[in-house]
Design brief:
- There is one protein chain.
- The protein is an alpha+beta fold.
- The protein has 3 domains: 109 residues, Orthogonal Bundle (Butyryl-Coa Dehydrogenase, subunit A, domain 1); 83 residues, Butyryl-CoA Dehydrogenase, subunit A, domain 2, CATH 2.40.110.10; 144 residues, Up-down Bundle (Butyryl-CoA Dehydrogenase, subunit A, domain 3), CATH 1.20.140.
- The chain contains 11 helices and 10 strands.
- The strands form 3 sheets. Strands 1-4-5-8 form a 4-stranded mixed β-sheet, covered by helices on one side. Strands 2-3-7-6 form a 4-stranded antiparallel β-sheet, with no helix packed on it.
- α7 runs antiparallel to α8.
């Protein structure tokens, strides 16, 4: 595990207590049943606790605690399947921090830090991530094209859009339309059509700005997946210790002990990879490679752990009464976001081929 400083330990503990007491999986059920993208009151509480500004510089209203600190919070939110725009908004803010002009930083970053403004990335032009390619184009400051899969889109006020010649900021409004995508995880996803939407380019990030943003999206998503892995493992272990079959507690069966031992190994490997990715962003060294490893490892671990969690619960694992099925559904969506395992392994192999 990563060595945390005192501030990071306090932040992690605060997030752990808040999700456990104020926003458990039951809170996600209420959001789902209400048909809302997220709980606005819960998002307000997150902003008040400073989570929206963790990676934003102090000069622009944030705390600048770094990506490992943000990852600790995201991991805890993943444990309770908390529906919030924290990841999407942090990624949009990081894009401006990395590549925005001083005017753009001054205009948007304080609003991100306070939670007043929600942002998201609009990169992918197909339901499955295929890399940093875009047919979306900008002419005379107007953006035209379609983004097929945008997370947390319905409440976002600012979109960070990948176009043919760079990354642009587009405020919600004229020249764009949203069509909701109904996904198995019941979260806020949409297809967005841009038709002459006013757009402003992020000019200061260099040619690799889009890759830097993508790296951060991969690692932060992997942090959420790590929290989900931990939650499914803990829930399944508790169930095996309580469930009696053939007059014996299930955890006493050696075959099931071996399966849980395998899952624990995968969980710890995923933790090492995810924390390595977060630390790489903070240090600025080997970020793209570490991001690919973190996301691919989290993909594999969550796929296996969520599947085994449902199976080890037996038939009740697929019922709405038990929480474990929600993690499996969310897992399948996140596995495809920002790169599947096969895509990331190919990308990593190409990085190491030179």
């Amino acid at each position: 595990m990563a060595v945390l400083n005192e501030e990071q330990e306090m932040l992690r503990d605060m997030a752990r207590e808040w999700t456990k007491n104020e926003h458990p999986v039951g809170a996600w059920r209420k959001v789902r049943d209400a048909g809302e993208p997220f709980d606005a009151d819960a998002w307000g509480a997150m902003a008040e606790m400073g989570w929206a500004g963790i990676i934003i510089p102090e000069a622009h209203g944030g705390s600048d605690f770094g990506w490992l600190s943000l990852g600790l919070v995201v991991e805890e939110l993943g444990k309770s399947l908390a529906a919030s725009p924290l990841i999407a908004s942090a990624l949009a803010a990081s894009a401006i921090a990395l590549g925005g002009s001083e005017d753009q930083k001054t205009e948007y970053l304080p609003r991100f830090a306070s939670g007043e403004l929600i942002g998201t990335l609009a990169f992918d032009e197909s339901p499955r991530h295929t890399g940093l390619t875009a047919s979306t184009s900008v002419h005379d400051g107007r953006l035209t094209g379609t983004k097929a899969f945008v997370h947390e889109a319905s409440r976002a006020g600012l979109f960070v859009v990948l176009a043919q010649d760079g990354v642009y900021l587009v405020e919600k409004g004229q020249g764009m339309s949203l069509s909701r995508r109904a996904m198995v995880d019941m979260r806020d996803h949409a297809e967005i059509d841009f038709n002459g939407a006013p757009a402003h380019k992020l000019a200061d990030g260099g040619s690799d700005l889009a890759q830097k943003i993508l790296d951060r999206a991969r690692v932060l998503t992997a942090a959420e997946m790590l929290g989900m892995c931990q939650a499914v493992f803990d829930t399944t272990l508790d169930y095996l210790k309580q469930r009696v079959q053939f007059n014996q507690v299930l955890s006493s069966f050696q075959a099931l002990q071996h399966r849980m031992a395998d899952l624990y190994t995968e969980l710890e490997i995923a933790r090492s990879a995810v924390e390595g990715g977060l630390q790489a962003i903070d240090s600025g060294f080997g970020v793209t490679e570490a991001a690919a490893v973190a996301k691919a490892t989290a993909n594999d671990a969550l796929h296996h752990i969520s599947r085994e969690g449902v199976q080890l619960h037996g038939g009740i694992g697929m019922t709405d009464e038990y929480d474990v099925g929600f993690f499996l559904k969310r897992a399948r969506v996140l596995e495809a976001a920002w790169g599947s395992s096969s895509h990331l392994r190919d990308a990593y192999a190409e990085m190491k081929a030179y």
